[in-house]
């Protein structure tokens, strides 16, 4: 089968053996894939958790059809339309754990379905399960114009947040954040953004920050979070190291929590997917939770799709079809 593989000379489409499902695995006939930021690093040979390196089939998000079931796989049957996350997505066939997938709603095509699994699981976990958002609270999403950022704002609104603030350093994308749940959009490269947040919250700060930037905004986040507020760190777009004001952290008694899927067990991942199904799946099916597709590329143009992502001018998801 054809797959997008990282090799000694970089990533390219290659012929590899079709995988065989074992245990609770499902073999998926892939129809579309969503690109994610982590894919750009793996395409250059960087590890993402335990995955990566020469011989790795790239990709982590897909939509398609069940082609075959492992002996212990439950909940789906051959022919079902599904979407999910996991390694080796950029291929004609991929394997998925039966607990790490969703049924694709009948009112979505494969391109639309491929935009959702990573954003839904990541941000439901960050905003609801870890962030503990409550009705009437104020929430700030750092890096809000990314696919997962747009989803985070929508989930916060769905769960009753009174004020949702999104950040983007790009003026065009910042101007579109209100289409996806933002009541206020700020430029995190402007030192005055903290003042804007404090003004919008009557000087108190927000209850919750979901931070995809970290690095350079870490201390500003502390200043923008209310006493006894929470910061959930889900990314490092602003750098992996920075000064940290421990005194301000202590004075505001902020809960600062790091999350990632890279160190989670499959049991933990299954729990997150199950909570998404139980709590917000109706909003997915009604299209209340959805992401814009910036551009769609055929599989043989996957390198161009990555070039488009690395240009960093897109809003929403870039999709590759097979």
Short recap of the structure:
The protein is of the alpha/beta class and 322 residues long.
Description:
Keywords: NADP. This is NADPH2:quinone reductase. Residues 7-320 form the Enoyl reductase (ER) domain. InterPro entries: ADH-like_C, ADH-like_N, ER, GroES-like_sf, NAD(P)-bd_dom_sf, Zinc-ADH_QOR/CCCR. Helix 6 (193-200) runs parallel beside helix 7 (218-224). This protein has helices at residues 37-42, 110-113, 117-130, 147-158, 171-175, 193-200, 218-224, 246-251, 266-285, 302-310, and strands spanning 2-7, 10-15, 25-34, 61-69, 81-85, 93-97, 101-103, 138-142, 163-167, 184-186, 206-211, 225-233, 255-258, 293-298, 317-321. The N and C termini lie close together (12 Å). It is globular. With 322 residues, it is an alpha/beta fold. It folds into 2 domains: 2-117 and 286-321, Quinone Oxidoreductase, Chain A, domain 1; 131-258, Medium-chain alcohol dehydrogenases, catalytic domain (Quinone Oxidoreductase, Chain A, domain 1), CATH 3.90.180.10.
